[in-house]
Design goal:
The complex is a heterodimer. Chain A contains 15 helices and no strands. Chain A is an all-alpha fold. Chain A has a domain of about 250 residues: ABC transporter involved in vitamin B12 uptake, BtuC (Orthogonal Bundle), CATH 1.10.3470. Chain B is an all-alpha fold. Chain B has one domain. Chain B has a two-stranded antiparallel ribbon. In chain B, helix 1 packs across helix 7, helix 2 packs across helix 10 and helix 7 runs antiparallel to helix 12. Classes of the chains: A mainly alpha, B mainly alpha.
């Protein structure tokens, strides 16, 4: 089918049409509950780009880049990792343990150590479902969903037990000052640019951007990436070429878990500066929509993550301005985007392909 | 443990396993026909919400904007709950049968859509933070006392078993139990059942025999929707929740899937698997934290136990489960 479509239609036109359909249905939902969808859209965009909003938009974008890349890397090996939520949550424990371990002299050392801690814990939480998938044939989708639920119980246990700070609140102690990451406000102040002081966006944003480049290099420019994609295209062919499915499945899921784990440096270390319950707030699941919309390409993930960042920040403004619409509107849009860019993709692709075939046949 | 305590545990296990059983059988029809469905959770959730919302509306007096029904509002709820769930099933069918899309992604999308819409619409409709009003009387499925339960209550052993365990559940529990032999019969003793199973194993052969695979798979998906709707209606109209609560399915759809795999896609073992998960839930509810001498098992572990068990079961430590051969693959005629 792809051969009849020009590349621009495949990677730009179809995702945009799918997105438009998803937003159209979301608009109908808004109409159904008796609000004006165009005003809702306007409020979302205003809320996301206002001087006091953009910093939050970028903060959410950072989260979604990490989780989107996590899902995308696994997708290349045809593994559907729904466990980003749990992996990121457990990574929060790793980041918290690192941050609380020492009185860190400088944030950059603390950040490097925390990244390692988060990646290690995130990858660790992905390792068991990966192994069970590759070795025991238990489906990764259901196992990772179960691991999300188990992670929630585990965090709950840790935060009212071993890791709880003195007091009643289910949270860890605050991290030492040396582990405090510079926010975008701090960084831009150095070069004399004013930026919102309250916004949580921090240095993790640049790590997320770097991760995009690294994932691109990994998937398309490395031997490992080739093996990853080969396994994703055809397991039989990959085995024939001497690629071990067990090894690649494990590596793909470990990378995926580590990427999801990096989210914790943004939320736990960058924003909360202590471990709290539900630090991930559904970002792991948004990653699925982001990866699907971004067609598993880092650039696409980056753009889709920004779009969802806008939806998240603008959506909270919307919930504030329009009492009829609650924050769950975002989950609805997320479901619709997954539906239209994922499972219902052929709804658009089939007619578009037919159109292009007809255009091509016509003599010019 | 005392006899009565055991009876209570089994009784609550029965209640807790009923929705699992309905969802599990729902998944069974779909997956035996070759359509994987991880959207059971979302369909149950949407069914539960619509059932509760419509039952509440039907029971509300006319001057307050309701329908003023004085009896049977629960049936209105059940009907619309099923309808909602079937609509979502058809979306899944459209994606996975007609458009040959990814069935897993479709299921995930339906789960998110249901999780978001139920709260969004619920908040807008009732202004109770995503809940529906408390349902009373005929807006719920209340427990049924089977004939002779009170008279037999004094007979030793059999009496309490009949009165406490067998009698005194709501109608939908009995529906769920009756579905087990019915499903077995449909699957193994009817023409439709044979075709259904064949569509999940070798759809090309079914097609060659002149049977419409597409129509067969759509019927399976619709049956799946009906049963998920009943499961959802049970959660909101048949349990002590007496209404819809945000995310009230709490992973039950996934546990039902695990039970289905554990049961190797067969109806009678499905009953056993669901009852096991129900019992586990009942134990976790009754004993918040278990003291087993050496140390105390924390409550969070008890809560996570069904999920951990699911992982263990899926890992095949209790025997190999082989899914329907053509499961998850769209059927393309010309090949």
């Amino acid at each position: 089918m792809n051969s009849t479509l020009p590349k621009w239609a495949d990677i730009i036109l179809i995702p945009l049409l799918n997105l438009a359909l998803a937003l159209l249905i979301a608009g109908l939902v808004v109409v159904f509950i008796g609000e004006d969808p165009l005003r809702a859209l306007q409020l979302i965009i205003q809320g996301a780009f206002a001087p006091w909003g953009i910093g939050f938009t970028l903060y959410y974008t950072t989260n979604f880049i990490f989780t989107g890349l996590a899902v995308a890397v696994a997708f290349h090996a045809r593994l559907f990792n729904i466990g980003g939520e749990g992996q990121a949550a457990i990574a929060g424990v790793g980041v918290a343990l690192v941050c609380l371990a020492f009185d860190w002299p400088h944030w950059s050392i603390a950040l490097l150590a925390a990244m390692l801690g988060g990646m290690l814990f995130g990858a660790g939480w992905a390792a068991i479902p990966a192994y069970l998938h590759a070795k025991r044939g238990s489906h990764i989708v259901i196992t990772t969903i179960m691991f999300n639920l188990i992670a929630a119980s585990l965090i709950n246990f840790l935060l009212v037990g071993p890791m709880q700070a003195p007091g009643m609140a289910p949270e860890s102690s605050s991290f030492p000052a040396g582990a405090s990451l510079p926010t975008l406000h701090d960084m831009l102040a150095v070069i004399g640019v004013a930026f919102d002081k309250n916004a949580p966006v921090n240095v993790s944003l640049f790590i997320a951007l770097a991760a995009c480049v690294l994932v691109w290099l990994l998937v398309w420019k490395s031997r490992l990436g080739f093996e990853l994609r080969a396994l994703g295209h055809s397991e039989k062919a990959a085995v024939y070429a001497g690629i071990s499915p067990l090894r690649i499945t494990m590596i793909a899921m470990l990378i995926s878990g580590a990427l999801a784990g990096l989210l914790a440096i943004n939320t736990v270390m960058g924003e909360a500066e202590r471990l709290v319950l539900d630090a991930v707030q559904g970002a792991g699941f948004v990653g699925i929509a982001v990866a699907l919309m971004g067609r598993n390409h880092p650039l696409g993930v980056l753009l889709a993550a920004f779009l969802f960042g806008i939806l998240y920040q603008g959506g909270s403004e919307l919930a504030f301005e329009m009492p009829g619409i609650s924050r769950e509107m975002i989950v609805v849009i997320q479901g619709l985007v997954i539906m239209f860019t994922g499972s219902l993709e052929n709804l658009v692709r089939m007619p578009v392909t037919r159109l292009f075939t007809r255009l091509k046949r016509r003599p010019i | 443990m005392e006899f009565l305590t055991i009876l209570q545990l089994l009784d609550s296990a029965t209640r807790l396993s009923a929705p699992l059983l309905l969802a599990c059988l729902a998944g069974l029809y779909s997956e035996r026909a070759g359509i994987f469905d991880i959207g059971l959770e979302g369909k149950m959730l949407a069914g539960a919400f619509v059932a509760a919302a419509m039952a509440a509306t039907a029971a509300l007096p006319v001057d307050q904007g309701g329908w003023g029904m004085t009896w049977g509002a629960a049936w209105v709820g059940l009907f619309f709950g099923i309808l909602m769930s079937v609509v979502l099933s058809l979306v899944h069918g459209l994606a996975s049968i007609t458009l040959q899309g990814n069935q897993l992604i479709s299921g995930v999308a339906i789960n998110f859509f249901a999780a978001g819409t139920t709260v969004l619409v619920g908040q807008n409709w009732f202004h109770m933070g995503g809940q529906t009003p408390q349902l009373k009387g005929h807006a719920r499925f209340e427990s049924i006392t089977l004939p002779g339960a009170e008279q037999l209550g004094d007979v030793p052993v059999i009496g309490p078993v009949y009165e406490q365990l067998i009698s005194g559940h709501n109608l939908l529990v009995y529906v769920a139990l009756a579905m087990v032999p019915l499903t077995w019969w449909i699957l193994n003793r009817t023409r439709f059942g044979l075709h259904l199973r064949a569509a999940g194993e070798n759809p090309a052969a079914v097609d060659t025999a002149g049977i419409n695979v597409i129509r067969l798979r759509y019927s399976a998906v619709i049956i799946c929707g009906i049963l998920c709707g009943v499961a959802g209606a049970y959660l909101s109209l048949g349990t002590s929740a007496a209404g819809f609560l945000k995310d009230m399915t709490a992973g039950k759809g996934f546990i039902a899937l695990a039970a289905l795999i554990f049961a190797k896609w067969r109806p009678v073992p499905a009953l056993g698997a669901c009852f096991l998960f129900g019992l586990l839930d009942a134990i976790a509810n009754k004993y918040q934290s278990l003291d087993i001498g050496l140390f105390v098992v924390p409550v969070q572990f008890m809560q996570a136990l069904p999920y951990i068990l699911t992982v263990v079961i899926l890992a095949g430590f209790v025997g190999k489960a082989i899914p329907p051969k053509a499961g998850g693959e769209p059927y393309v005629k010309e090949r």
